């Protein structure tokens, strides 16, 4: 039973390895442009030259030794032949070293271009993957998966150029020379040794794949924990959790250490086997050579030649062993990366026919939307509402009622289980994602910024924005004066996720970024939740100006910010339970009125009073 299980497991691993090889070659062919292919072809040409020169070196040494052995029988004081063989040997070694340097340069050029193209291809694939993929994985783990995949390609191409091809060519050249010299005994010794080496390396490749895969997984896991911990330093310090997070990281590093220990155990075992093969082949060739020289069947030059080839092949064959090890590790690294590439991007399945948008006014319509993140919990139940062009609709409700899920569906970060969303009468599922997201600007409750300048963070809302555009958007968000008071002004670096700015400043940068986009539809998801009352009043006034130019959807918890809305929807347990204007909902004395009283202690300001205050 165990033997059957082991055989089945080995067969499955072999199929997986072949699949990884095929997918890797396909990705290589896609990524390798003319520059890469030309450089690799030239590198292989220098490899061929170097292998032939390496095989010819012992021949020159044999001729030199034979000529030196005959010097005493020569009558002349000066013999030209030994010096010619010295020159032949030295020039050959010189050209061999030069070809090796040229190979490094050519391969380096190809390797860096290939890393750039595969890295760009991977990055584009990653940023186009749906939000669900990114929410289920640690950022650091995904980054390490990509880096390991690139490292896997480096290992494979490096050993193809530096180990497999030169060893193969050199072995064929040596076999040809031994055949021409009529030394079948030594050819047999080298052939049997080579077969033994290959069997040892095959055993190693089979046994090392699983430990290599564990090493890859432990690398990804440890990098994910490291990145996640460094990105959340503020929370760690708030909860005095340095010791706990260090213990957690040490546990992950322990698993990584165990994986490497298994790897090195296999490495040592294979090293003993390879050394045994080398010792036996070297000893056998020396014994045979000594006997042939003593019997007069072999010259000293032939003795040097044969044993030079035995020694010469040991180093390349050991390099071949390292190649087997690294290629197995490279395939394990590639496995994680290729699994990411199999994930379907958001652009797949989008049906676009001709001009999907006519006259664009920004009318928004949700029709019978139902949605759940998993089968166990339904978030939205048959939600329907319409936002006429250049009008404002607000959505309120308790946490978990489905408000933010509506925004994610609007941006097609997720797809609804049933129902559809339309912009100007066109279902967004039939529109290109760039059209959908290009039409909408959002200001989230959590304004996360890039580790860049304030100017570049604002300009992220519109490609090619000028400095005047950026400053205009900052003024609209009531941010320009605050920026100009900073030493670096618009070139101020905001820090990782914008943490060098206050919460209110981050929110205003996000508002400026949205304003710069000049959207057809503006979405505010708790857009003023981080602002003080005075700043909130100023921002609301500016947002009202922005809302006059586009359709507006507001998600709000603080009800005083949305009493000006044309219609207010109240969500409860994923369904619309009330709708109407602020005054209508207060008069109805339902859930909205209860929320209002809870926030204002029974004080109900009039709509006109709020508007004049804003």
Fold topology:
Elements: H1 2-31, H2 34-69, H3 80-127, H4 131-135, H5 139-180, H6 184-231, H7 233-238, H8 242-294, H9 300-341, E1 364-374, E2 377-387, E3 392-397, H10 403-410, E4 418-423, E5 426-427, H11 433-438, E6 440-443, H12 454-459, H13 467-476, H14 480-484, H15 503-517, E7 521-525, H16 533-547, E8 551-555, E9 567-572, E10 575-580, H17 582-588, H18 591-600, H19 607-613
Parallel strand pairs: 3-8, 3-9, 6-7, 7-8
Antiparallel strand pairs: 1-2, 1-4, 4-5, 9-10
Helix pairs in contact: 1-9, 2-3, 2-5, 2-9, 3-5, 5-6, 5-9, 6-8, 6-9, 8-9, 13-15
* Helix content, binned percent: 55-70%
Helix tally equals 19
The gross shape turns out to be elongated
CATH topology of the largest domain: ABC transporter transmembrane region fold
Indicate the CATH class of the largest domain: Mainly Alpha
Largest sheet: 6 strands, mixed
Computed over alpha carbons, the radius of gyration is 36 Å
Which spans have pLDDT < 50 for at least 5 consecutive residues? 1-5, 348-358, 602-614
Structural class, from secondary structure content? alpha/beta
Task: Using the 3D structure, state the CATH architecture of the largest domain.
Answer: Up-down Bundle
């Amino acid at each position: 039973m165990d033997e059957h299980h082991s055989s089945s497991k080995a067969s499955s691993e072999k199929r997986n390895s072949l699949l990884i090889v095929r997918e890797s070659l396909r990705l290589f062919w896609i990524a390798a442009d003319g520059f890469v292919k030309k450089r690799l072809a030239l590198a292989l040409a220098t490899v061929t030259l170097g292998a032939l020169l390496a095989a010819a070196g012992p021949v020159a040494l044999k001729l030199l030794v034979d000529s030196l052995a005959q010097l005493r029988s020569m009558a002349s004081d000066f013999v030209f032949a030994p010096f010619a063989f010295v020159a032949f040997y030295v020039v050959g070694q010189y050209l061999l070293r030069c070809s090796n340097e040229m190979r490094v340069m050519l391969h380096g050029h190809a390797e860096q271009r290939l890393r750039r193209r595969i890295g760009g291809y991977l990055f584009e694939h990653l940023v186009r993957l749906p939000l669900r993929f990114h929410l289920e994985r640690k950022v650091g783990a995904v980054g390490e998966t990509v880096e390991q995949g690139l490292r896997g390609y480096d290992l494979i191409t490096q050993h193809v150029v530096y180990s497999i091809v030169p060893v193969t060519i050199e072995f064929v050249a040596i076999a040809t020379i031994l055949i021409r010299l009529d030394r079948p005994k030594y050819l047999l010794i080298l052939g049997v040794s080579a077969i033994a080496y290959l069997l040892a390396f095959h055993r190693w490749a089979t046994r090392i794949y699983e430990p290599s895969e564990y090493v890859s997984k432990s690398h990804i896991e440890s990098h994910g924990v490291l990145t996640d911990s460094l990105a959340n330093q503020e929370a760690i310090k708030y909860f005095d959790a340095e010791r706990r997070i260090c213990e957690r990281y040490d546990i992950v590093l322990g698993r990584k250490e165990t994986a490497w220990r298994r790897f090195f155990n296999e490495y040592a075992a294979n090293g003993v086997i390879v050394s045994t093969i080398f010792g036996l082949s070297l000893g056998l060739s020396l014994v045979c050579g000594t006997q042939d020289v003593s019997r007069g069947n072999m010259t000293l030059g032939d003795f040097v030649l044969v044993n030079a080839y035995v020694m010469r092949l040991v180093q390349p064959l050991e390099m071949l062993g390292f190649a087997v090890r690294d290629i197995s590790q490279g395939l394990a690294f590639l496995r994680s990366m290729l699994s990411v590439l199999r994930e379907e991007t958001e652009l797949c399945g989008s049906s676009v026919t001709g001009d999907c948008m006519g006259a664009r006014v920004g009318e928004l319509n949700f029709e019978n939307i139902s949605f759940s993140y998993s089968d166990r919990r339904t978030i939205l139940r048959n939600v329907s509402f319409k936002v006429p062009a250049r009008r404002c609709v607000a959505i309120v409700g308790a946490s978990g009622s489905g408000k933010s899920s509506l925004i994610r569906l609007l941006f097609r970060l997720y797809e609804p289980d049933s129902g559809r969303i339309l912009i100007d009468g066109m279902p967004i599922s039939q529109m290109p994602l760039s059209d959908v997201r290009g039409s909408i600007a959002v200001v989230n409750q959590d304004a996360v910024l890039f580790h860049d300048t304030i100017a570049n963070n604002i300009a992220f809302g519109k490609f090619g924005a000028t400095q005047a555009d950026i400053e205009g958007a900052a003024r609209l968000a009531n941010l320009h004066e605050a920026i100009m008071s900073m030493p670096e002004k618009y070139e101020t670096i905001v820090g990782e996720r914008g943490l060098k700015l206050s919460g209110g400043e981050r929110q205003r940068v996000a508002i400026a970024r949205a304003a710069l986009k000049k959207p057809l539809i503006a979405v505010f998801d708790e857009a003023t939740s981080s602002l003080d009352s005075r700043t909130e009043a100023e921002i609301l006034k500016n947002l009202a100006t922005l809302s006059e130019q586009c359709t507006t959807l507001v998600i709000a918890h603080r009800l005083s910010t949305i009493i000006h809305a044309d219609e207010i929807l109240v969500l409860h347990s994923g369904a619309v339970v009330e709708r109407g204007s602020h005054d209508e909902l207060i008069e109805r004395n339902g859930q909205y009125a209860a929320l209002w009283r809870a926030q204002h202690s029974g004080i109900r300001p009039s709509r006109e009073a709020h508007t004049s205050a804003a």
